[in-house]
Amino acid sequence: MSRKLLSIMGFITITFLVGCSSPELKVPLEDFGMVGVLAFDYIDEDTTKLTVAIPQFMPDVEQNTQIFTVHTDLVSDGILEVEKLSDKKIVLNQLRVVLINEEYARKGDVQRIIKHLYRSAEVGNKVYLAIVKDSGEDILKGDYPDKPNIDFYLNDLLQPSINTAFNPNTNIHDFIYTLTNPVLDPIIPVLAKKDDKVEIKGVALFKDKNMYDMITPEEALVIQALQGKKELSPLPLELNQNNTKDKILLDLIQSKVKMKSNKDLQSPKLAISLKIKGTLSEYKGKRENNLDTPDKLSQLEHDIDKQLEQEIQQFIEKTQKLEIDPIGLSENFRMYYKGKWNNELTDKVVRKLEVDIHVETSIISTGTLK
């Protein structure tokens, strides 16, 4: 037998014996504290309040969720401080939701927190993110009598559904993708506590690492429509066309969008065509008893078209003033650009962009109005 082969066999034997001699560390499952929600509240530029929610699955516990709050400057140090308060090993494998309060989103380094979690081997990419109007700690410590525990409640609230189709349902992967994408800025849903419930109040617009502004669900619906989402949440509209103050609600909406740019970075122009069809489920106005003819319904569709064109135009102008591109309109110019695209080129397009918007509405049913 060759000396080389003997050396290899000896190394394997030693490794095996050392492995056998080391005691195997086993931690019982009940000794783990599996964090379901993390909440970050702003204190100052050097200190963050970290609150964790840990579900309790033992049948004899008095509270179904343990809540711990510590002050820290780093996420990992905060987790260690929580371990000192808890009687369990804190792990993030079952993390579902991360809450960041609005003050932290505007003043703190949000991307540092999210990047830390994104790089952690324990944390999955489908952890939902949300901004909270006041305090994340208050939301976690709130009393919700008809809910089993806070982590399941918030996770279910942030799940995609037809009634919250305006909600971007942003997870950690989505945020990192948009943060590193030069033609798209991050958006995150905003939550607020009202009595014994938590509600989605709007969507936060981000630029780089900080929150710039908050938009309404109706404005957020524009983002979803122009990004090509085919099924939209119910759309309430107040028509200001032809000296009327009609109020309507379109439901079961299907949409289709097309965009065409002039490919010119010096004088960028973009034509947007949006087709929507849905059911007129509610109507309040002078035409309430006069929508039973094709001509009257066609006039209503025309007024909806004009109202939507006006509101979409106003929203795009709003994002231009903020120099934010949450829709990804600059992508229609990047795809024709020869060279490496960067954030400066996106800002240039957003500032100068002229948009021509055409909306075509089809009311396929008047629901229970007839």
UniProtKB/TrEMBL annotation:
The keyword Transferase does not apply. The keyword Magnesium does not apply. Keywords: Germination, Lipoprotein, Membrane, Palmitate, Signal. Residues 27-192 form the Spore germination protein N-terminal domain. It comes from the Bacteria. Pfam families: Spore_GerAC (PF05504), Spore_GerAC_N (PF25198). This is Spore germination protein QC.
